[in-house]
Amino acid sequence: MSDYCDTEAPAPVPGAGGPPFADCVLCREPTEYPESYKGITLCPVCEWQEAQRTACSG
Ligand SMILES: [Zn+2]
């Protein structure tokens, strides 16, 4: 029996007022990565295209 546990944490609002996002290195579109992300940042479109390229290398 719980008397005081399970306090509800406020759920973050998705997509609203998020951190500044890094630009895609290919098309300069905003990505889902924060600016502090270390590495290559790709937007979902370019990321998908890169995945396709690397998937069938040769
Ligand atoms: Zn892109």
How is the main sheet built? 2 strands, antiparallel
Number of extended strands? 2
Order of helices and strands: EEH
Poorly predicted regions are none
- In the sheet with the most strands, the strands line up as 1-2
Describe the global form: elongated
Helical percentage: 10-25%
* Radius of gyration, taken over Cα atoms and rounded to an integer in Å: 18 Å
> What class do helices, strands and sheet pairing give?
alpha+beta
Instruction: Spell out which ligands are present.
Output: zinc ion
Number of helices: 1
- Which whole number gives the mean pLDDT? 82
Distance between the termini: 61 Å
Proportion in β-strands: 5-15%
Structural write-up:
The chain has a two-stranded antiparallel sheet. A hairpin with a 6-residue loop joins strand 1 and strand 2 (30-34). It has a domain at 21-55. It is elongated and about 60 Å long. The mean pLDDT is 82. With 58 residues, it is α+β, with helices and mostly antiparallel strands. It starts with 20 loop residues before the first strand and ends with a helix. The protein has one helix spanning 44-55, and strands at residues 21-23, 30-34. The protein contains one helix and two strands, in the order ββα. The longest helix has 12 residues, at 44-55.
In short:
The chain is α+β, with helices and mostly antiparallel strands. It contains 1 helix and 2 strands; from the N terminus they run E-E-H.
Please write out the topology.
Blueprint: E1 21-23, E2 30-34, H1 44-55
Antiparallel strand pairs: 1-2
Bound molecules: zinc ion.
Protein name: Hydrolase
Organism: Streptomyces lannensis
